Amino acid sequence: MNVDPLVPLALGIHSGPGMFALLLGSGISKSAEVPTGWEVVEDLARKLAALQGEDPGGDPVGWYRGRAGGDPEYSELVEQLAPSPEERVRLLKGYFEPSEEDREEGRKVPSPAHRAVASLVAKGFVKVVVTTNFDQLIEQAIREAGATPAVIAGPESARGAMPLAHSGPTVIKVNGDYLSPDFKNTVQELESYEPAMDRLLDEVFDQYGLVVCGWSAKWDKALRTALERAQSRRFSTYWFHKGPLEPEAERLAAHRRAVPVGIPDADSSLTALADSVAALAEAADQRPQTTDLAVARLKKFLPDPAHRIRLHDLIDADTKAAISHAEGLEVTRHVPDPLERLRQTEERMDSYREVCAALLRLLVVGARFFDGESHDRLWAECADRLANYKMQLTNGDADKIGMQFCPALLALYSIALGSAAADRVEPIAYTLATVTLKRPPYPYDRQGETPIVVTLDFLPDAMFTQPSARTSFTAKSDYLLEVLHPAAADVIPESGRYEDIFDDAEYMLGLACTAQLPDLDWIAPVCRAMWRPRSEDSFPDSLVERHKDTLIEMGIFNNAEHLQEVRTRYNQQLREHRKRTLR
Predict the structure, then answer these.
(1) At what angle do helices 426-434 and 406-422 cross, to 10 degrees?
(2) In a 3-state reduction of DSSP, which class is residue 172?
(3) CB of 576 within 8 A of CB of 561?
(4) What are phi and psi of 459, to 5 degrees?
(5) Alpha helices for 370-425 (secondary structure H)
């Protein structure tokens, strides 16, 4: 049976948000009637001839060669025609920025293709866009869709770029921006990129799937070379093409083992792709009525003490289901094949995620909306049971042992998210202060009771780097961010605010880890907030700072001096880890 290649592509983009990058050429700006870089150079050469009182005829490039002895270069032409920055802006505006007449007739404004790309980016399905275009229509469309992209348009911005896995939406303009002095346009200029841009492209082409559209591959030798360097085949490449591929594109498509996708034009095809992904997301968002009903009952029971037993039974039912599932999972002690081990790990993590989904939602909503101590005890009791159920494996493979604590870890984060969303730390502080592991397995056992917060260290980041996910230096943290987003959607619907609250909550948990186990040869878990600071000390500690008195009173920290010592130690660990990963 013949399957439209857009179908598996849409499924892949929907099931792995951020897994695919887009590589876009001038074809996506065709309907916007934006001139290509070479067309701009031809017109600039024509203007230069006119200023010198000469008629270049129909070949301004040939005229320039006859006068200068070589091909016209964009930077030289601009410098001759517009020496000052202000004059340069005025000169180039007419090529790339619309006049009132252009706007009325739909020229030089984002096309349907640009808006389809912007939709995928704004909804979080695509994070990285690589483009050879000089115009700013992609960035404009993304901003109009509600997202703010980082734009890398030259070697300086490429050198300062964070790893893409830890950045927000990013547009990489490999040939520069029309206002940039690094604008690359001639054959000679397109021969090579600066090392910083090459390193960035190596990261994209190795760690992401690729959707190519509107790019002929004919002129951009440096970009072709970057694609040829990438030997990874971990993710698919889809090559959109209208008509036969150029020989250069055909060779690259074969090198990437790309799936060819014949299209009528970029506008209709990218729009169809974005619509398909949106339809899949809408279908997936139809949450079971039973979970919605459970949340409604939770909100009804919590304010009324008369419903105390019903409230307990509501949480108890989902807690029992999660424990029953965890106890029934088979634990394979040794699997020699590493790929099979990873597959089994992924299946197990997905099963925990599925069986705990309703409970996590209840915990986030409960911790967010209600503020009685009896409620805090209820969330803590749930975490206690998930941390202390009868586990099958108590010695041997440390990763498999740690994996059994995944439900407890998910519950801990859910309570922390609800607390952070409410700006009230009592629910998570009560859990951290009162819940311990009664039978911590080797190698995590020690004299005395072990605080539940050490479960953050039981599951290493490597366990979350699955075959279907790209490499990340904070894979566990990134996984938890994704898994808990649906659970938090009732109280934190905005994606940007959710990430901020997640980072606040996770940083607080990291500090609690550092405080609880200062005597072990142990490093606190690395949280994704290590990528957030713009200066050496700007970690997300405002939640802790606002509630430090409560955290000290409830025993998470001994006193203000102890909190400061813990914070200094943890921040230093995050800084050192960040430096190591950026080497």
Answers:
(1) 150
(2) strand
(3) no
(4) -110, 105
(5) 373-387, 398-403, 406-422
Within this chain, do residues 91 and 128 fall inside the same structural domain, yes or no?
no
The whole-angstrom separation of Cα 126 and Cα 192 is 27
| Same domain (yes/no): 45, 158 | no
Would you say residue 227 lies in a domain?
yes
Express each pLDDT in 559-569 by its tens digit.
999 999 999 88
Residues 96 and 213 in one domain: no
- The CA distance from 323 to 386, in Å, is 6
DSSP 84: S
Q: pLDDT tens for residues 48-82?
A: 888 888 888 888 888 888 887 777 766 677 777 77
Last residue of a domain, one of 282, 310, 344: 282
411 and 333 in a common domain: yes
Number of domains in the chain: 3
| 77, 44 contact by CB (below 8 A) | yes
What are all long-range contacts of 97-102, with beta carbons under 8 Å and residues at least 24 apart? none
Which residue pairs, CB below 8 angstroms and at least 24 apart, start in 98-105?
none
Cβ atoms of residues 416 and 368 within 8 Å: no
Contact 269, 261 (CB under 8 A): yes
Which of residues 282, 310, 335 is at a domain's end?
282
Is 132 within the bounds of a domain?
yes
Cβ count near 394 (within 10 Å): 13
For 119, the 3-state DSSP assignment is helix
Q: Are 42 and 61 in contact (CB under 8 A)?
A: yes
Say whether both 91 and 182 belong to one domain.
no
576: Cβ contacts below 8 Å, ≥ 6 apart: none
Q: First CA to last CA across the chain, in angstroms? A: 48
Cβ atoms of 543 and 555 within 8 Å: the answer is: no
Q: Give the range among 300-309, 397-406, 456-465 with minimum mean pLDDT.
A: 456-465
Structural domain including 193 reads 6-32+110-282
Both 275 and 296 in one domain: the answer is: no
422 belongs to a structural domain = yes
| Cβ(78)–Cβ(88) below 8 Å | yes
